[in-house]
Amino acid sequence: MPDKSPNEADRLARIIDGLGEQIRTASDEELLDAAREERRDVGETSARVKGILKHALRSHQQVQLIAAREGYRRDTAAMAARSFELPETNEERRKLFMAAITQLPQLQPAFTMQNREFKDFSDDDIEVQLRKMALLDLLSGVKVPEE
Amino acid sequence: MIEPTATPDVVLSTLGITEPQDIDIEAIAYACGALITREPLSGCEANIIGVGDRAVITVNSTSIETRQRFSAGHELGHWMRDRGQSAFGCSDRQMESEWTANNPETRANRFASDLLLPKSMFVPLAKGKPITTDSVSALAAVFRMSRTATAMRLVEHGSFPAIIAYYEAGQKKWSIPKRGEVPFYLKPSDLPAPETVTATMFDDPSVSEDSDEIRADHWFTAERSSKYYIRESCFRAGPNSVITLLWWENEQQIIDLNEAEESRAERRSDGSWERERE
Q1: How far apart are CA B86 and CA B35, in angstroms?
Q2: How would you classify the pairing of strands B34-39 and B54-60?
Q3: Which pTM value belongs to this model?
Q4: Which of A84, A112, A116, B246 is the most buried (most CB within 10 A)?
Q5: Helix locations, A26-89, DSSP H
């Protein structure tokens, strides 16, 4: 046999509906009188409610921004923790870099600058750029020519 | 992910950004599919490598923070505007000097400026401010941007008629007037006269910024320029380059030039101009 007694959620909903209806239909004067009787500061309450609504609206509008901030933090942390399988010596890394640039010529504009030659790249530069290429899975097909 | 065709305004509104302090370039780029990293780079300010819908932007970590932000916005501009090309590397010179040509660098500069100094947030803060180095510095601090990019914005959206010019090795590279207010033919001279603040700054490399009131004919060849005074405010953009701001606190010269132009146009339309010339 079904239980006909209202559950707690229904009861709470009805109480809130009733309160809402009472507030909605009360005049401004009645509301101000009620606040005064309870010794509440109307200005302070108004500012607090406005603040809550503003914060809620802002949070709602910035859902994607908040997600992007979290995603950025997550990905940069993962990138810092990730180990890339790069050649061990500076010379080998330089060879891999040159092979990547030759075999993926579309990447050259990122590295070629006015008055800058590939030979001018420091060992650190080479390593940084190789890690970026590895992150984008660009190095898997690159073959270092045998000497 | 935000669509690559999105304008800076759309990017900001999609992310609910309405205040300068919320312009978080790392999060914005991430929402557009680009991950910003900071590493020491030699020979360039920033670069971008993109594949498919993912990109990595590397910004030179040894540069000052405002430069890094603009560089990141500039590379993001390449990503959003030139996605067919998979890589760019950009120098500080390109970011300082390429504002007038129609090429990927100019478009990327424009994108960065619209994203990091959005008109909707910039205009209320710039309202009534004189077009000076001090105003530029104050606004640049609010938006955490370079003074050059902020100065461009102040001329574009400020409250006074103004011109911004870029001088390198004592020679003008480009100048941009406030559109719709400064007559198009009013161009600052290619070589600044010795009386100008700009010339003084090239003469004395120890001066980092300066301002003065100056007679307009030291800058312009327009008729009766010697009758008017303008304001000149300058700051150093690089070791051998100066940003010059020329502006009219008293707009009488602009008013007179516009009236003279209208009068000429009227005479042209009724034929009296041709008769006078004969």
Answers
A1: 15
A2: parallel
A3: 0.78
A4: B246
A5: 28-37, 42-61, 63-81
